[in-house]
Amino acid sequence: MHLGVDVGGNRLKAGLVTPEGLVHNLQSCTTPYSLPEFRTVLRNLVEQAIAGNPVETAGFGSKGIIDPETTRVERLPGAWDFLEGTRLGELIEDLLPPGTPIRGDNDAKAALAGEIAWGAARGLRNALLLTLGSGVGGAVVCDGHMLRGATHVAGHFGHILADPHGPPCMCGARGCLETVFSSRAIEAEAWSSVHQGAVSPMTRAFRAEPEKLDCRTIFEWAAQDDPIARWILDRRIEMLAAAMAGLMHAFDPEVVILTGQIAEAGEALLAPVRKAVYWRTQGLLRREVVITGPGLDDTSGVAGAAAVGMLT
Ligand SMILES: [Zn+2]
After folding, report:
1. 277, 241 in Cβ contact below 8 A?
2. Going by C-beta distance under 8 Å and a sequence separation of 6 or more, which residues neighbour residue 273?
3. Which residue in 24, 123, 222, 258 has the most C-beta neighbors within 10 A?
4. Domain that holds residue 39
């Protein structure tokens, strides 16, 4: 069995993963806000997940930038910055059989490792993954290798350029992909439409019940042909597809996997993305690249984390 630990922004999760990618003993709790508490909670979760079973490898998937070999958290801005400088493996190594290999990686790279081991990119040597949520993350496997770059930053596709004159981004630049295509960006534009008094069934509904304004609901309104929802999403999906076409020329993948909260929209997102990507890439690629949702049933991130550990 393989231990997987997912260090998420909201939840800390641990579980045992079989060689077939099935998650057992999944444990989960709120991610603590201090290092001593984090250490205690993590160790409890890992002990409960292992529950006396033999463990061959251990892997972490975490927000931020993680050194895969040492499991040191290199950068993790925000509420969990206390983890910067911590080697995640050291917090649990005495709970594992002596000499158990422990590795760690960024959560998007872990997700792609899981998709290559058991999911939509199974056995492929060239695959690209984008996580579409409140921000945008990514990872790419090129010629069989997970690209990391000189400082493990490679794959941060949320910060490739989508619009040179676009909004300011948390990274200090402007017009990055996640400033135009993320749940925050989509929701901000819907808020702006409501605030400016634009009239449609959707804006009327959000004005009456502002707490219902979220990305998922905007997709639902678009499915009912609400003109403002459609205008927001059509334009932004075109921007995502244009950025993806650039990535496909850069990396020439066999498959592109879209995951994360926005990708739960399924074909409402995938179908227009495929169409827009195809006309932008057919000239050079001369093929229709598979663009799909995740193939793993596991939504906890634990299977991907375990796949990182199995790469030893
Ligand atoms: Zn940025």
Report:
1. yes
2. 237, 240, 241, 244, 258, 291
3. 258
4. 2-117+298-310
Instruction: Tell me the CA–centroid distance for residue 131 and ligand 1, in Å.
Output: 15
CA of 102 to the centre of ligand 1 (A): 31
Q: Which pLDDT band holds residue 157 (cuts at 50, 70, 90)?
A: very high
Among 196, 188, 178, which Cα is nearest to 213's?
188
Distance in Å, CA 184 to ligand 1 centroid: 13
Centroid of ligand 1 to alpha carbon of 174 (angstroms): 6
Are 174 and 143 members of one domain?
Answer: yes
The verdict on pTM exceeding 0.85 is yes
Q: How close is the Cα of 123 to the center of ligand 1, in Å?
A: 32
Please state the rounded mean pLDDT for residues 29-37: 94
| Span from the CA of 295 to the centroid of ligand 1 (angstroms) | 28
Total domains in the chain come to 2
| Residues facing 174 on adjacent strands | 168
Q: Supply 192's token pair.
A: 């702006």
Copy the structure tokens of residue 135.
């921000």
CB within 5 A of ion ligand 1: which residues?
159, 169, 171, 173, 176
169 shares a domain with 83: no
Cα(299) to ligand 1 centroid in Å equals 26
Q: What angle do CA 144, 18, 97 make, to 5 degrees?
A: 95
**CATH label of the domain that carries residue 238:** 3.30.420.40
**pLDDT > 60? residue 301:** yes
| Residue 135 phi, psi dihedral angles, 5° rounding | -130, -170
